[in-house]
C-alpha cells in the first residue's frame, strides 16, 4: 500500500510521494505534506513556467524563482501566473 499524507494542497488524505524528490528542508516539507497528485499538478506548471520564461536550471536565480513559485503553488494556494497562458474553459 502506498504511503498516505494529508495533502495541504488538496486538503485531503492522499497517496504520498515514494521518496523525497527535492533537496533540503523544503524537500522534506513537500515529502511530508504534498501528495503525488498535487506534485504532478505542480510539475505540469513547472514545465510551462520553464518554457514560458525560458528558464535555465543551471542559473541560480532561475532556480530560486522556480522554487518560490513552487512554494506559493503548493503551500500558499497561489496560482502560477504564466503570461500568455489562458486555461481552457468549458
Automatic annotation (TrEMBL):
Cited Gene3D superfamilies: Fe(II) trafficking protein YggX
Single Gene Ontology BP annotation: cellular response to oxidative stress
Highest taxon in the source lineage: Bacteria
InterPro entries: Fe_traffick_prot_YggX (IPR007457), Fe_traffick_prot_YggX_sf (IPR036766)
Pfam families, alphabetized: Iron_traffic (PF04362)
Keyword Phosphoprotein: no
Gene Ontology CC annotations of this record: cytosol
Protein's UniProt keywords contain Iron: yes
Keyword terms: Iron
GO molecular function terms attached to this record: iron ion binding
Physiological role: Could be a mediator in iron transactions between iron acquisition and iron-requiring processes, such as synthesis and/or repair of Fe-S clusters in biosynthetic enzymes. Necessary to maintain high levels of aconitase under oxidative stress.
Family membership: Belongs to the Fe(2+)-trafficking protein family.
Listed name of the protein: Probable Fe(2+)-trafficking protein
Amino acid at each position: 500500500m502506498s504511503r498516505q499524507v494529508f495533502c495541504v494542497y488538496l486538503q485531503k488524505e492522499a497517496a504520498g510521494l515514494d521518496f523525497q524528490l527535492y533537496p533540503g528542508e523544503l524537500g522534506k516539507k513537500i515529502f511530508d505534506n504534498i501528495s503525488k497528485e498535487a506534485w504532478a499538478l505542480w510539475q505540469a506548471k513547472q514545465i510551462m513556467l520553464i518554457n514560458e520564461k525560458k528558464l535555465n536550471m543551471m542559473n541560480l536565480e532561475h532556480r530560486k524563482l522556480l522554487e518560490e513559485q513552487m512554494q506559493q503553488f503548493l503551500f500558499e494556494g497561489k496560482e502560477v501566473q504564466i503570461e500568455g497562458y489562458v486555461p481552457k474553459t468549458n
